[in-house]
Structures are given as structure tokens and as C-alpha cells.
Design goal:
Two copies of one chain form a homodimer. Chain A is built from four helices and twelve strands; from the N terminus they run αααβββββαβββββββ. By secondary structure, chain A is α+β, with helices and mostly antiparallel strands. In chain A, the strands form three sheets. Chain A has a seven-stranded antiparallel β-sheet, with no helix packed on it. A three-stranded antiparallel β-sheet of chain A has the order 4-3-5. Chain A has three domains: 62 residues, Orthogonal Bundle (Arc Repressor Mutant, subunit A); 29 residues, no CATH class; 90 residues, Ribbon (Umud Fragment, subunit A), CATH 2.10.109. Chain A is elongated and about 75 Å long. Chain A starts with a helix and ends with a strand. Strand 12 of chain A pairs antiparallel with strand 12 of chain B, so a sheet runs across the interface. Chain B binds a DNA duplex through helix 1 and helix 3.
Chain lengths: 196, 196
DNA sequence: TCAAATGAGAACATAATGAGAACTTTGTCG
DNA sequence: CGACAAAGTTCTCATTATGTTCTCATTTGA
């Protein structure tokens, strides 16, 4: 457990770094807390390092915060269903977005139109795509048709040398293509929607 | 972590390049920082190159900035619509997930059931919620009903002291409550789905 | 009253900064 | 090309700023 002033020191460092994108000097921390001695701050910073809140490098502005929860994580509090209390989640306490961001050959497309509405992908949603040339059956892929049209559809292989592309919209029809007309460009990894 | 003067040097280079559409001379940087020695600037530029902020070419004005893309960004390549070529995006080249992750009082719930199906929120999807006690009309909120049931619904205020909760499922009915029966716990910020 | 927490400040070690000389490379011009 | 100027590179040397390690005094709370 941190003492009052240790907590103050940590708070100041966090604010400072968020604001300046840079670690503060010991004297800057001291000034921020109304303390005249950098030796005192050194003691607090040492304690914070000991307690695992930050790391020190033997340089000026050498402080680095140790993320208590990764920057790409949010606490996963529970499950929600209509009209029932939230069910607490015991095992997994963080939702890690690096599952989306992690891959090294991924990119985002913004979906226009309602062709994927039955898949829960709506107009203006973002989809995260991983580059790939092949896909397993029933994966949703970015497919290039006849070197011209690009589309996001579920893929199946009904028979050899044939590819079926299935739109997620009841109003549209699945269609079979000769395999050489279809080039798979990527696989759907995730979907993100931002609300106002 | 950059030192103060390294940061100053980087700032100056960025400003200069934005203004002049070309890289500054070492002596120009020196002058901009009030330094008389180009050797000093050379040292800072080398440090910045080492740290990955820029690249040097063996030419005069040979500096090139290296775009820093945050770890929580993915390239936004274009827009996709059924059966049309991808429309390239000119302006915004990164989708910033910090729009989702950024808030300091946010958490994630996993949705169970199909009560939000018409909103494109499906069973097992994750929703990002920001803590809040109030919401504007038509926002989707986490609402606590009678201190017991928690639900995710669109909110409206048909008249004073009355709250309407609207499920996003045609099979379910909107319902009006006395204002004191409903406590808003959070507002829907985003929605994320991970595919296998 | 005792122990922990807090603050001041001196003394020292190291990092950061600035100056400038000497040299190499690049650019320019006949 | 060849020469000259301009720019970039590589050094060494001082000086200053910052971080580290102390001791000592004061405050706070059980």
C-alpha cells in the first residue's frame, strides 16, 4: 500500500506523462507537490519502483510507468443479458484488444451499405482484415471477383475448383464462381463500431 | 525517452517541415534553439534517429520524419461495399482505437442473448461502456431497473419523470418506467466482435 | 512515547548540454 | 572535370543540470 505522498507522486507522474508525453524531472515533481528537496522525491520514486509501479533508468527523465493494465485492455466486468442482473466474470478480467491489433499484416476497412446486415455488420462499421490468400470454409473474406469487384462475403467450397460466396443479407443470393475468378485478399478478424 | 533538448530538436524539425515542406539545415535547427554549434545538433539528430523518430540521408536537408503510429492504431485502407472496388480513403489513414480505449472510466460487457439484434449487437459481442449517471435521448445505455435487473437498451424521455427503454429487437416491446425506478449506469461507446 | 512518514539540504556521481576545432561529404559553377 | 563553398560528421573539452546517497529535523498517528 502506498503512503499519501507516494500516491501523490505517482498521480503527478501519470498526469505529467499524459500531458507532456515525457517523464518529469525529480525537481518538477517536487515543485508539483510543493516540496523543495529533490532527495525526498527520489525516495518516493524509489518506493514506487520497489512497489512495481514504475521503472527507473539512469538518465534524466528516465522514469517509465509500468502499466497496471495494458493500454489496449479494458476491464471485462461481466455479461449482460436483457432483464437479468449482470453476471460477474471470474476468469477473464481484461478484454485484450491486441487480439484485434496484434497481427502484423492487418488493416481496417469501413463497410458501406447493408450487404452484411444479417451478420450484424452495419453501414459505416469497421472491419479488421488480415491479409491472406486462402481461407477455410465458412470464414468471411475479402474477395476480389474477376480482378475488379471487391466484396466481403462468407466463403464455401461446394466442389473442386468452385467457390461459393454467400452474402449476409437475405435479400441477396449466394453465387458460385469458378475458382480462378476469385482471389481471396483477406480474412475477417473482427468488427468494431463506434457510437456517438 | 527523449531528453529535453532532443524533444526540442524534434519539435523544431516537425514545425519547420510543416512550414517549409523541406527539412532544415543543422545550423537552422541550432539557430532555432539558440545554440551556436552544429555539432551539438548533430548529436541530437543522431539520438533521434537512434530512437526511431527520423531517418537521415547523406545529403543536405537529408532528414526525413518517420511516422509514429500508435500501438493502438491500424491502417484504414478504404471502404468496401458489395460488388464495388474498394474506395480508397484519402484523409484519415489510421483508425484509432484509443477512441474506444481512451476513456478512463470505461469497461467492457459481453452481451448474452439476442435482445440487441436489430442494433447489430449479437450474442457474445463485446460492448464498451462508459460510466455515466445520465444519458441523452436515444443513446443506448446500461440501465438498472428497480435496483435489480440490468439491461442494455435505447433510452428516451417521453415526458417528465418518465423513462422509456426500447429494446433493439422487434420481438420485444418498449416499456415506460417511472424515472425513480431506472438508474443509468453507463453509456454505450462502442461494440467489438472477434471472429475465430 | 515510539515508529513511520515527511521534508530539508549537503555532498557527490553521472548525464546532459554547449562550444568549437578539424575533417569529410555534398552541392554548385565555370 | 576541378575548385570552392556549404553542409554534415566526428571529435575533445568545459560547464551545467540532474539523479543519488546521505544525515538530520519535524510531523503524524496509534
Amino acid at each position: 500500500m502506498l503512503t499519501t505522498r507516494e500516491q501523490d507522486t505517482l498521480d503527478f507522474i501519470q498526469k505529467y506523462m499524459a500531458q507532456h508525453k515525457q517523464a518529469p524531472l525529480l525537481t518538477e515533481i517536487a515543485q508539483g507537490l510543493g516540496i523543495n528537496s529533490k532527495g525526498v522525491i527520489h525516495r518516493y520514486v524509489s518506493a514506487l519502483e520497489q512497489a512495481g509501479y514504475l521503472q527507473r533508468n539512469p538518465k534524466t527523465r528516465g522514469l517509465e510507468l509500468i502499466d497496471q493494465l495494458d493500454a489496449d485492455e479494458l476491464p471485462l466486468l461481466g455479461r449482460i443479458a436483457a432483464g437479468k442482473p449482470i453476471e460477474a466474470i471470474e476468469d477473464q478480467h481484461q478484454l485484450n484488444f491486441s487480439r484485434l491489433l496484434g497481427g502484423n499484416n492487418r488493416y481496417v476497412l469501413q463497410v458501406k451499405g447493408h450487404s452484411m446486415i444479417d451478420e450484424g455488420i452495419r453501414n459505416n462499421d469497421y472491419v479488421v482484415i488480415e491479409h491472406a490468400q486462402t481461407a477455410r470454409s465458412n470464414q468471411i473474406v475479402v474477395a476480389l471477383i474477376d480482378e475488379h469487384d471487391v466484396t466481403l462475403k462468407r466463403v464455401q467450397y461446394p466442389q473442386k475448383n468452385q467457390v461459393r460466396l454467400i452474402p449476409a443479407n437475405k435479400a441477396m443470393q449466394a453465387k458460385d464462381y469458378a475458382a480462378d475468378r476469385i482471389k481471396i485478399q483477406g480474412i475477417l478478424i473482427g468488427q468494431v463500431r463506434l457510437y456517438e
